[in-house]
Amino acid sequence: MSRTWVLVLSAALAMGSLPRQLAAETIPVGGTATQFETDIETRVGGQPVKMVLTGAGLRIRGLPPLVSVKVYALGSYVEAGKGIRTLEDLLSVQAAKQLHLVMERNVEGHEMADSFRNALRVNHPSPRFDRQLDHLCAIMRTLRIQKGDHVMMTHVPGKGLVVDLVGKREFLVEDVQFSRAIWEMFLGRNPLDETLKKNLVARLSL
């Protein structure tokens, strides 16, 4: 594990925002200094929850290798012991889930908001989720996300989506179907990135 990543992780853990790592192996994300623990413990809905890594990968924008920009490393977690074996299991299960982004570049809030809106609309055209998406994007536009920042998106069963830009802003979008739509951005029929989609479920068969 790189010294830079250790320092970033230690600082975030000290603030109490990141999940607690258990004794487990780490999975590196190629092309970055980020490594994701295979087993973590975090709090979901105020309760401690153990989670397992389903996979991890790198979001790249552009057409590699000609033109490509690293945007973020992404780890996908699901509550342990739920018997998740397939991608559809992961999408549909009403259990705690988390998408953990580690930024690889600075991103203005309006850029992040537009990216999320466009990606979600591929699978869910307007007016579906208009209200929820407007709420999410309005908050994103007020933020400036920097390289090294951690963004946690957690599915809370029966509640919806908690978005935590660690150390900066945390908020809830109350709609469990909208939360699923966020997962479908990465794992649905029309994902942001097919390679990333495959990487995010690479450990389901292990």
What is the CA-based Rg, rounded?
16 Å
The residue-averaged pLDDT reads 89
Q: If strands are numbered along the chain, what order do they take across the biggest sheet?
A: 1-4-5-6-7-10-11-12
- How would you name the oligomeric state of the polypeptide chains in this document? single chain
CATH architecture: 3-Layer(bba) Sandwich
Number of strands: 12
| Uncertain regions spanning at least 5 consecutive residues | 1-16
> What name does the CATH topology carry?
Chalcone isomerase
Going by helix content, strand content and strand pairing, the class is alpha+beta
Share of residues in strands: 35-45%
Largest pleated sheet? 8 strands, antiparallel
Number of domains: 1
Q: What is the terminal separation in angstroms?
A: 23 Å
> What is the CATH C-level name?
Alpha Beta
DSSP helix fraction: 25-40%
- Large-scale geometry: globular
Number of helices: 6
Short description:
The protein is of the alpha+beta class and 206 residues long.
Description:
- The chain has 206 residues and is of the alpha+beta class.
- The protein has a single domain (3-200), classed as 3-Layer(bba) Sandwich (Chalcone isomerase).
- Helices cover 31% and strands 35% of the residues.
- The chain has six helices and twelve strands.
- The chain has helices at residues 3-14, 87-92, 109-123, 130-140, 176-187, 194-200, and strands at 20-21, 26-28, 35-37, 39-44, 47-63, 67-79, 97-103, 107-108, 144-145, 150-156, 160-165, 169-173.
- The strands form three sheets. Strands 1-4-5-6-7-10-11-12 form an eight-stranded antiparallel β-sheet, with helices on one face. Strands 2-3 form a two-stranded antiparallel sheet.
- Helix 3 packs antiparallel against helix 4 (130-140) and helix 3 packs across helix 5 (176-187).
- The two termini are 23 Å apart.
